[in-house]
Amino acid sequence: MKKFPPQRLEEIPNIGKSIAVDLRGLGIMNPEQLSKQDPLKVYLQLGKTMGARHDPCVLYTLLAAGKFLQTGESTAWWKLTEEGKSMLAKVNKTG
Q: What domains can you pick out in the chain, each with its CATH number?
């Protein structure tokens, strides 16, 4: 069981070393900072700073992390696939 509240990004369920490094590259250094961010905006920002579109699974992971930071309950990232796809569809329509 993960401790709550987490002190490090890697203590958030679904956030591994690679995503934690990417988040730190955006200036998001800890869970408290991540909890104040919009997952979709973070996902899009990652794509801009890294010069490539990230796999949509990264968005689902960020959604799961956000839910954990709000509630303390861990959710598998793949359970947020439909929510994430809906968000991405809206972004793709507006450009």
A: 9-94 (1.10.150.20)
DSSP reduced 3-state for 18: helix
Q: Which two tokens stand for residue 30?
A: 């800890």
Do the Cβ atoms of 87 and 38 come closer than 8 Å? Answer: no
Q: Is the pLDDT of residue 37 over 90?
A: yes
Query: Predicted confidence band at 8 (pLDDT cuts at 50, 70, 90)?
Result: very high
Q: Please give the torsion angle defined by the CA atoms of residues 5, 82, 84 and 22, in that order, rounded to the nearest 10 degrees.
A: 60
- Token pair 């439909």: residue: 82
**Can you give the pTM of this predicted structure?**
0.90
Task: For residue 44, give Cα distances in angstroms to 3, 73, 75, 91.
Answer: 29, 25, 22, 10
